What we know:
It contains five helices and 31 strands.
Amino acid sequence: xxxxxxxxTLTRRGFTKLSGLALGSLAMPEAAxxxxxxxxxxxxxxxxxxxxxxxxxxxxxxxxQVPGPLFRMREGxxxxxxxxxxxxxxxxxxxxxxxxxxxxxxxxxxxxxxIAPGASARFTMTPTPAGFRxxxxxxxxxxxxxxxxxxxxxxxxxxxxxxxxxxxxxxxxLGLHDWRGQFLGSDDGYMSPVYDVTTINGKMLGFGDPxxxxxxxxxxxxxxxxxxxEIHWISFSGHSFKVIALDGNVVPEPQTVxxxxxxxxxxxxxxxxxxxxxxxxLGEVRKHVQGTGMGIVVEYAxxxxxxxxxxxxxxxxxYRVFAEADNAAPNPAVKxxxxxxxxxxxxxxxxxxxxxxGFSYPQNSxxxxxxxxxxxxxxxxxxxxxxxxxxxxxxxxxxxEVRRLEDGAAIAGLRKDVVLVHAGKTAEVEFVANNPGDTLxxxxxxxxxxxxxxxxxxxx
Length: 460
Ligand SMILES: [Cu+2]
């Protein structure tokens, strides 16, 4: 399929570039191009998101939609990918949660080349592991709160498992996002973004299509928090969530819970039994956030009326309930690696500079400071957050197992690629160094990674 033919909203400038690209590709005969059509085609171009009739947001999007298209792949089945960049600035696409080589993983810090404006990139990849993954831009935003993850460059990716962990009737994908951020300085001079528009699947509550369900259905909800910086709390009035997987990985102890907490880049896959007919709101638990749009209507067949929202009284979430207790003796073969996070305040009106073990990126990733991994070894990361902010920490190209929670509880079996560590707390995760190549570790909060909260692990 030729993607450019079906782009709904190319701007004039985008169209000019497209023509230029078409000329550039004349070197390849049309038949040859068609014969080698990619399995996955992404076109990055300017786009205006209509979050509501009164909220039009100029941004970048994949294939003219926010979130970008859902891709389904079979685990281990090779895919050809083509990415065309019709934006004004270089772009890169990160395949979050996959075990890819650093040249295509989608982080410049690992050596993935950026795609220049007007250029395209083409490669093959073998998608693994199975589960709910996603893809997103991995560029720098700095003070511009419309760029990088502040914008619309994110989409769903499902790598189909060989077996389904639980029976369900159908799947729904929901993406949480925050828009139109502004840096707000607090009394102590620190700056953080605040947002005046929030959406689920690009729409504010009441402006998108409702999710239409039937009584008795079991719906698998795959929920992604693609927010640049914000943790979100989600509940579904009249219903509960049976959490099956976190970050796409099946949990050892599926549990039914009243609400979900997702920090930036986290995913939850949960089955909802549609056993309470009516018209309901699924949305952000905190009123002031839902008030900016983060909600979606769920409508049973033959039900009408205004959607009902039941306000939960408190925020409840714990990784622990989905994990096994860890009663095993410590494994002496595991290598300990301590990572201490703090910040250096740059002066009033400026942001903090984030540090890992005393140095910011890139100083912490020189041959002298960069952690060196031995292939095949198991590492335990002691994630010590000595700062006054919470950090969703992400390791590229590997899955880790959460082993110790902030309250000291030892757990096992919870495999993730993002873990939230609150201010002043420590958590521990383990991973096996089984994917040689430069590996980026960073805070998934855009303003933190932009200000030094990244580090490259290298293999010996
Ligand atoms: Cu952070």
